[in-house]
Amino acid sequence: xxxxxxxxxxxxxxxxxxxxxxxxxxxxxxxxxxxxxxxxxxxxxxxxxxxxxxxxxxxxxxxxxxxxxxxxxxxxxxxxxxxxxxxxxxxxxxxxxxxxxxxxxxxxxxxxxxxxxxxxxxxxxxxxxxxxxxxxxxxxxxxxxxxxxxxxxxxxxxxxxxxxxxxxxxxxxxxxxxxxxxxxxxxxxxxxxxxxxxxxxxxxxxxxxxxxxxxxxxxxxxxxxxxxxxxxxxxxxxxxxxxxxxxxxxxxxxxxxxxxxxxxxxxxxxxxxxxxxxxxxxxx
Length: 284
Ligand code: 5GW
Ligand code: MN
Prior knowledge:
CATH architecture: Alpha-Beta Complex
Largest sheet: 8 strands, mixed
Helix content: 25-40%
Strand order of the largest sheet: 1-9-7-8-5-2-3-4
Oligomer: single chain
Structural class: alpha/beta
Bound molecules: 5-phenyluridine 5'-(trihydrogen diphosphate), manganese (II) ion
Number of helices: 6
CATH class: Alpha Beta
Strand content: 15-25%
């Protein structure tokens, strides 16, 4: 295996590539893809991914799956679980060797709050029923998105979170965390590290299981008190990451937004949210 000599004095200087709790922040130019692929290939790891396509969001699935084939853990064992209420409309996408898609039916729902609430529950159950002790890593991804560049072994870690592209230069007091202390997603104005995306998170299946179970319980306990966090499960995820600290942080290269102009520190967009016509895709 050949890769450039590592250096501790030369490298990117325009971004920070380690958090104050010493988790790597993954940016283009901070890792060797060849080296990482070699390390994880030797371990023969497997990676699961979940994606929800409920109602009209099924329209995003084809591009999601096709681009995942081109960029997501190429050369590794990958199993994508699609949760949908329209199993007949799941597109036929040719998968490479060692890669497969499983479709799981879920009830239709008109309320995003319900879909959102059930997402963590379904992730929790999927891990308990099918993944624990069988699969190493899992990523949970929004369907209204596409891959444009490599998303591979550099993203692996115990608990992995992606920094939201919308707020990474802002003061923490401006982050759209849930600010009511009565909610179990509460983060105080002087607290919080980064604002993380609800649209992509992952890690070891055991760690993501604990995350899903905790966020689901907090979400449901809030609902019993008649409170819904500002950004639903994204708020609960942010609270969880504040308390637990991700062991690897992915830069906004890993979930950009197509409507946002590219910033100079973004050398590559790996995955991004597509522009969507809300009126046309969301229920009611
Ligand atoms: C989303 C908003 C309002 C009402 C319904 C939905 C919705 C979300 C839906 O009808 N169907 C669906 O499958 N979802 C799933 O939740 C998709 O995987 C989607 O990517 C994810 C998060 O919802 P998004 O993508 O609309 O949220 P943003 O914050 O990325 O715009
Ligand atoms: Mn989305």
